[in-house]
């Protein structure tokens, strides 16, 4: 009787050992991951749940991974809902991932021509916007002198004993001539002056626009465009564009 009992215990121990080995057996699981339309899904992460054992699908959506027979595989990808699939001793697992429904938050886009004054030499959008409030901060009555203070690329200097430029200050952007600056008032081209700079002044031989004929009290804001921001205006704006917005 005792021998039979010992034999039964020994047999049970052997069976338990074999069962443990069977459960710990490593299987090579292969398969293909497709999307909602049946197309191959490359770059899908295939991970054994609870471990760092994982792989990813190739360009055809195929994968191969070694896991225990009782493991669970987690399939995940950007824009798709993750799935968990139990191996259950299988060696081939094909999975179809469904698209994940995500709601995008509201996006607000603002332009570079803000109503408040902004002047930044290093800005990627080379536009200087000078508001009426900024204009009032300077004790100047001429528009050309105000722009000299607030626009880094604008230059205008008063001339003496040099024909009509005593009254019409030649204005330039980026050191180029006055006739290469396009002046707009409310988006429309401003006419040039009748004065030809013939003496030794800035822009000799050119005809510029007299900015000082525009009263600064009526200005709502001034926009100075240069480089790429003035490209849409063509060859008339080689130096840049000065757009003066007047109040109603």
UniProtKB/TrEMBL annotation:
Subcellular location(s) per record: Cell outer membrane
Keyword Membrane among record annotations: yes
Database matches in Gene3D superfamilies: Carboxypeptidase-like, regulatory domain, TonB-dependent receptor, plug domain
Membrane topology: Multi-pass membrane protein
Coiled-coil ranges from the UniProt annotation: none
Chain ranges passing through the membrane: none
Signal peptide bounds: 1-24
Pfam families given in the database record: CarbopepD_reg_2 (PF13715), Plug (PF07715)
Keyword tags: Cell outer membrane, Membrane, Signal, Transmembrane, Transmembrane beta strand, Transport
Keyword Transmembrane: yes
InterPro entries: CarboxyPept-like_regulatory, Plug_dom, Plug_dom_sf, TonB-dep_rcpt-like
Major localization class: membrane
GO CC annotations on file: cell outer membrane
Matching SUPFAM superfamilies: Carboxypeptidase regulatory domain-like, Porins
Span of domain TonB-dependent receptor plug: 123-241
Protein family membership: Belongs to the TonB-dependent receptor family.
Name the UniProt record assigns to this protein: TonB-dependent receptor plug domain-containing protein
């Amino acid at each position: 009787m005792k021998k039979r009992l010992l034999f039964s215990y020994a047999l049970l121990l052997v069976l338990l050992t074999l069962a443990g080995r069977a459960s710990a057996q490593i299987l090579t699981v292969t398969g293909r991951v497709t999307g909602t339309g049946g197309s191959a899904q490359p770059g899908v992460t295939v991970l054994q749940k609870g471990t760092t054992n994982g792989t990813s699908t190739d360009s055809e959506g195929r994968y191969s991974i070694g896991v225990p027979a009782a493991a669970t595989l987690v399939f995940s990808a950007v824009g798709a809902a993750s799935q968990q699939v139990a191996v259950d001793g299988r060696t081939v697992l094909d999975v179809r991932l469904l698209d994940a429904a995500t709601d995008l938050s509201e996006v607000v886009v603002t332009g570079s021509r803000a109503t408040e004054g902004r002047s930044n030499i290093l800005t990627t959008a080379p536009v200087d916007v000078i508001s009426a409030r900024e204009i009032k901060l300077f004790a100047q009555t001429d528009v050309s002198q105000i722009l000299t203070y607030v626009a880094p690329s604008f230059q205008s200097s008063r001339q003496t004993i040099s024909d009509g430029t005593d009254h019409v200050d030649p204005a330039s952007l980026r050191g180029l001539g006055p006739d290469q600056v396009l002046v707009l008032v409310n988006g429309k081209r401003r006419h040039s002056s009748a004065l030809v700079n013939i003496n030794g002044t800035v822009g000799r031989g050119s005809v510029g626009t007299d900015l000082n004929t525009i009263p600064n009290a009526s200005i709502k804001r001034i926009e100075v465009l240069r480089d790429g921001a003035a490209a849409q205006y063509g060859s008339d704006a080689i130096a840049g564009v000065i757009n003066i917005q007047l109040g109603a």
